[in-house]
Amino acid sequence: MTFTPRQITLASWIIVFSGLLLVLPLKLLPSLLAGLLVFELVNMLTPRLEPVIAGQRARWLAVALLGTLVVSTLTLLFAGAFSFLLHEAENPGASLDKFMVLVDQARGQLPPFIDVYLPASAAEFKVAIGDWLKTHLGELQLVGKGAAHMFVTLLIGMILGAIVALQRMPDISRRKPLAGALFERLSLLVQAFRNIVFAQIKISLLNTLFTGIFLAVIFPLFGVHLPLTKTLIVLTFLLGLLPVIGNLMSNTLITIVGLSLSIWVAVAALGYLIVIHKVEYFLNARIVGGQISAKSWELLLAMLVFEAAFGLPGVVAGPIYYAYLKSELRRVELV
Question: pLDDT digits over 51-108, tens only?
C-alpha cells in the first residue's frame, strides 16, 4: 500500500501532537523541557569547542561539561541540605528562634486583628506546626512523591537529551517517509523551544532590571537598605529563567529578607513585585510574541486555555506549544 506525502505528513502531525498533549497529564513536561534544553546547549557549545577539539569529540566534551555542571549543582544542593539538617540537629530550634525574632519585630507593627493569629512563643508555634503536619500528612506525602517524580524525570530527560545530541543525524533524504516527516516535526519543535528560551532570557533580564531599580534605588531613597541586595538581584535573574515559578521563588526570597527589617518593608516589596509582574505579564507576551511572530493576545489566550486545561504546567507549556503550532501553520502557508 502506497501513502501519499499528504497522508504521511498528516500521520506525523497526529503522532507529534498526540505525544505533546500526553506529556502534560502524564507529568512528563519537566523531562521534555530538560531534554530539549540539554540538546540545545550541546548544539550551542559544540561549534565553540570544535576549534579546540575537532569532530565528534567536541560533542562528547560539551556533554561532559554539562554533566559536570549538573552533578556539581546537585552536589551543592545536597550538601547545603545536609549542612542545614546537621545544624538543626546540633542546635535544635535555632531556626525557629530566629523566626520568632522576626515575629516579635512584626508584632508591634501589625494591626490587632492580624496580631491575634501570630504565635505567642516558639513552643506554641512548634505545637501548631505539629498539628498542621498531622492534619496534612497525606497531602505532604503526595507533594514529596511529586517532587521525587519531577527530580527523576528531569534527570532522565537530561540523559535522553544528551544521548540524542550525541547521535549523528543522517541525511533526511535517506530516511523512510514517516521518519523524515517526524524529523521535520521535531526540528520545528526544537526551533520553537529555542525561540521561547531566548525570549525567556530577555524576560529575566527585564525582570532583573525592574527588581534591581526597586531594591538598589527606590528603597535607599526612603532610607531602607535591604540586606543581601546584590545576591537577591543575581538570584532574580537566575530564577527568572524558570517560567512562572521562577518569579514566585524570587518574590518569596525578597519578601522574606524584607521581613528581617520590618513587616511594612516586606509588604511594600511584595506589593511592588505583584504590580510590576502584572505589567510584565503583558510585556512578556509581547517579547515572546516578537520572537515567534505572534500577537500578545494570541499568547495570552494560549496560556489561559492551557492553564485552564492543565494547571500551572499548562502555563509553562502554552507558549512553547503555541510557537510550534504557529510554525507548522506558517510552514504550510495557512497563516
Answer: 877 777 888 888 888 888 877 877 777 677 667 656 655 565 555 666 666 666 655 5
Q: Which of 320, 91, 98, 286 is nearest to 192 (CA)?
A: 320
* Residue labelled with grid coordinates 507529568: 27
CA distance 152 to 142: 15
Residue 328 has phi, psi (to 5 degrees) of -65, -45
3-state secondary structure 292-313: HCCCHHHHHHHHHHHHHHHCHH
Domain residue ranges of the chain, discontinuous segments joined by +: 176-189+196-335
Give residue 228's pLDDT band: very low, low, confident or very high (50, 70, 90): confident
Asked whether 289 and 296 are in contact (CB, 8 A), the reply is yes
Q: Which of 202, 303, 212 is nearest to 250 (CA)?
A: 212
* 185 in Cβ contact with 12 (< 8 Å): yes
Question: Residue 175 CB: number of other CB atoms within 10 A?
Answer: 15
Residue 53's CB: how many other CB atoms inside 10 A?
14
Residue with cell 555542571: 69
Distance CA 76, CA 94 (A): 23
Cβ neighbours around 9 below 10 Å, total: 19
Residues 6+ apart with CB under 8 A from 166: 42, 56, 59, 60, 63
Residues 171, 177, 181, 186: is their CA dihedral positive or negative? negative
Distance CA 126, CA 120 (A): 11
Q: Is 310:20 a contact under the CB 8 Å cutoff?
A: no
Q: Tell me which residue of 12, 305, 40 sits closest to 190, measured CA to CA.
A: 40
